[in-house]
Amino acid sequence: SRLEPEQSNVSKSPLSPEKSSQNSLEDSEEKLSAEESKDRNLPDAQSNLGLWGDSKGEDELSPEEIQMFEQENQRLVGEMNNLCDEVRQIEGKVVEISRLQEIFTEKVLQQETDIDNIHQLVVGATENIKEGNEDIREAIKNNAGFRVWILFFLVMCSFSLLFLDWYDN
Which residues form a coiled coil (predicted)? Predict the structure, then answer.
């Protein structure tokens, strides 16, 4: 009988703190009354029940205790169902996140190929611009040389005309 109140404390511990404090007060009162009754009936109990005594009366639960355990059981089942629902929701969200992550990875890989293509185009455009600048410089040099030759030709023609005019006079 000393072990039973401790077992009931352990079995009642999942209750809320208010209920457990009330139960602990009730259990302590039960312990005191059980110890007092033991002290009075100790010789009778030892002679009639042996060393450990008959535990048939102690194993049976009162209707109040059965109702309390059923309520506790229903509450725990409800909590477990809520937890299962939450786990299912979280699992669905994880699956959705995984799907979105796969899409994100696919898009990143597409962007990688697009970036590589853009890089190649930019490198090609830079080379074309360098070649264009070199062609422009060459054209400017050629154009300047052509102007010099035209200028030289015009100057020579002018001197030729002046010489012919002087020679004719």
Answer: 66-93
**Length of the chain in residues, anyone?**
169
In angstroms, the CA 162 to CA 76 distance is 124
CA dihedral 141, 142, 148, 153 (to 10 degrees): 180
Give the start-to-end residue ranges of the domains of the chain. Answer: 65-144
Task: Count CB-CB contacts under 10 A for residue 40.
Answer: 10
DSSP symbol at 125: H
Q: What does 145-168 look like in DSSP terms, one character per residue?
A: HHHHHHHHHHHHHHHHHHHHHHHH
Q: Are 15 and 72 in contact (CB under 8 A)?
A: yes
On whether the CB atoms of residues 75 and 83 are closer than 8 A, the answer is: no
| Contact (Cβ atoms closer than 8 angstroms) between residue 6 and residue 31 | no
Q: Read off the pLDDT of residues 31-86 as tens digits, 9 standing for 90 and up.
A: 555 555 544 444 444 444 444 444 445 568 898 889 999 999 999 999 999 999 99
Using alpha carbons only, how large is the chain's radius of gyration in Å?
53
Global pTM value: 0.39
